Amino acid sequence: MQTTAPERRQITAVSRPSDKAFQGVVTTGALSAFVVLALIAGFLFLRSTEVLRTFGFDFITRSKWDAGSVEDARAPQFGVAAMLLGSIIVSTMAMIFALPFVMGTSLFLEYYISRRIRFVLVSILDLMAAIPSIIYGLWGYLVLMPYASHWAASINKYFGWIPIFAVERENFDASPFVASLVLCLMILPIASSVTREVYSRAPQDQITAAYALGASRWGAIRAVVLPFGLSGLVGGMLLGLGRALGETIAVLLTLNLVFAVKFQVLASAGGNVASLIASRFGEAGPLELKALMAAGLVLFILTLLVNFGASIIVGRASRSTK
Amino acid sequence: MSISLNGSVGRGEFERTLKFSVADGEVLAVTGPNGSGKSTIIHTIAGLVPLRSGHLESDDAIWDVPDSQQWVAPENRTCAVVFQDLRLFPHMNVIANVSYGLRAHGVSKDEAHSRSTAVLARVGMSSFETRRPSELSGGERQRVALARALVVEPRVLLLDEPLSAVDVVSRAALRELLPEVLGSFAGATILVTHDQDDLEAIATRSLGLF
Q: How far apart are CA A256 and CA A275, in angstroms?
């Protein structure tokens, strides 16, 4: 049988118009996020330059916030140390409170109940994410605070010898402890949603392998689901942290703003950067407004650093389970 | 301990009615073409897939009788599985993979470690304890999976095509190793294979699914 070689074809890598159009759309979409981010950073930086130039590094390390007075010949002083520390303390406490609930909720919904009940409970959880933060704040102020103050008093009574649980005056209302409990509830839906989603993708073949080696359900979860879902848990918690760091109104309602660096989490004094901006914005003069913009810039950088750290942790955790 | 199955496994067109038993020291090879339900038998005995009808029992306990809703959970069956795709835990090193089953049964960390070390020596993997599965060749992973199943001292060992995922050289080495290891294994073994050479080298009798 005689065979002939096929004719040589010219292969080109020229994209079709539809491919080019699609590439343009997705590239624009991706770049627009960076452009918006850069515009926000640029805006905050430009508006805060004067304050940052005047106060320098003291703006970060000092905690006094005083718009000054011409009548009293008092020079303005602006520093966000107390509010920055308050943001970190309140958000970290909220994360610590939320972690067991996030893990428990995610595992319970994914591995311990039927699909039908899961659907109902997930809907309720998603609904929690849609509740406005003012509602959480009011509920925290009117309902939770009396109980939380009582709990705080008990903690102080038995663990007051630990410096962070000590108080100077026995007033436990509107403390970082109360604010962080409210924030804990607020971050629970988003953190649980992300974590549950990742837990649901845990490799089923490895779970059955664990069963086949004699593991109980909890044993299989510990061996397979938790290591596999670590990146999701970290990602979910840090998304929650992002929300907690930027939360304004709920913190404003449940935390007594005091411009002093304090580590006592049960005392009725604290603050965070977002609530500082919200509380002073309405009555601020031109210079204080710039100082509030600088505070916003600090919060913006802090949030960026947290998210950057989160993506590194998530990447490492993902690689370790592959 | 012997294991006996008299009933049907699989679903729909893949459902098969079977009757067999395997005694201590025996290696029963289950053979048949792809899709004939060989792996389903392994999964059913391990409790990962329910028996459709009939009964599955060892000589000391009833494991699965759907009609009377008797069912023993996988973790309480005295068997261990080497899966076709091995299913080693990728985030654990070799020693952690092997000692996992013992730890799951409540054995102390030190004892689990020493028993795992001994079994790894039996399968020629002593110097690989700290490596992760991704750092091993196919043949080495296969040995680790075998060690992981043997270390829990099962009464029934279930091997699902244990030589199918390795290269020719590793396959020859494992074909020598398996009879040696199974020779010192006191329990019953069920081996799923579609390779005639494996059957002749390892099994004491066979069951064909055609």
A: 10
Distance, in angstroms, between A100 CA and closest chain B CA? 23
Inform me whether the C-beta atom of residue A219 falls under 8 Å from chain B C-beta atoms. yes
Provide the whole-model pTM: 0.80
**Residue A314 CB partners (closer than 8 Å, separation 6+):** A231, A234, A235, A238
Alpha-helical (H) ranges within chain A are 17-55, 58-61, 81-107, 115-130, 133-139, 145-159, 176-199, 204-212, 217-220, 226-246, 249-254, 273-281, 286-320
What would the two tokens of residue A149 be?
């103050």
Put simply, the chain A residues between 282 and 311 with a CB less than 8 A from any chain B CB are: none
What is the DSSP code string of A155-207? HHHHHTTSGGG--SSS--TT-HHHHHHHHHHHHHHHHHHHHHHHHTTS-HHHH
Q: Which residue has the tokens 């520390």?
A: A85
Q: Does B149 touch chain A (CB under 8 A)?
A: yes
What's the distance, CA A299 to chain centroid?
12
Instruction: Say if strands B27-31 and B188-192 run parallel, antiparallel, or are unpaired.
Output: parallel
Contact A230, A316 (CB under 8 A): no
Q: Which of residues 107-126 of A touch B (CB under 8 A)?
A: none
Residue A218 C-alpha, separation from nearest chain B C-alpha, in angstroms: 10
| DSSP 8-state symbol, B23 | -
Whole-angstrom CA distances from A165 to A25, A175, B61 are: 54, 11, 57
Domain range summary for chain A, segments of one domain joined by +: 77-320
Q: Which of A206, A213, A320 sits opposite B101 (nearest CB)?
A: A213
Third-level CATH fold of A77-320 = MetI-like fold (1.10.3720)
pLDDT in tens, chain A (322 residues): 567 777 887 777 777 888 899 999 999 999 999 999 999 999 999 999 999 999 888 999 988 888 877 777 788 889 999 999 999 999 999 999 999 999 999 999 999 999 899 999 999 988 888 899 999 999 999 999 999 999 999 999 999 999 999 988 888 988 999 999 999 999 999 899 889 988 998 999 999 999 988 888 999 999 999 998 988 888 889 888 888 988 888 999 999 888 888 889 999 888 889 999 999 888 888 889 999 999 999 999 998 888 888 778 777 766 666 6
The CATH architecture one would assign to domain B1-78+186-210 is: 3-Layer(aba) Sandwich (3.40)
Does the beta carbon of B90 lie under 8 angstroms from any beta carbon of chain A? yes
Contact (CB<8Å) B81/A212:
yes
3-class secondary structure per residue, A194-210: HHHHHHCCCCHHHHHHH
Give the ipTM of the model, two decimals please: 0.88
Instruction: Report whether B56 contacts B21 (CB < 8 A).
Output: no
What 3-state class would DSSP assign to B17?
strand
- For A206, the closest of B74, B89, B101 (CB atoms) is B89
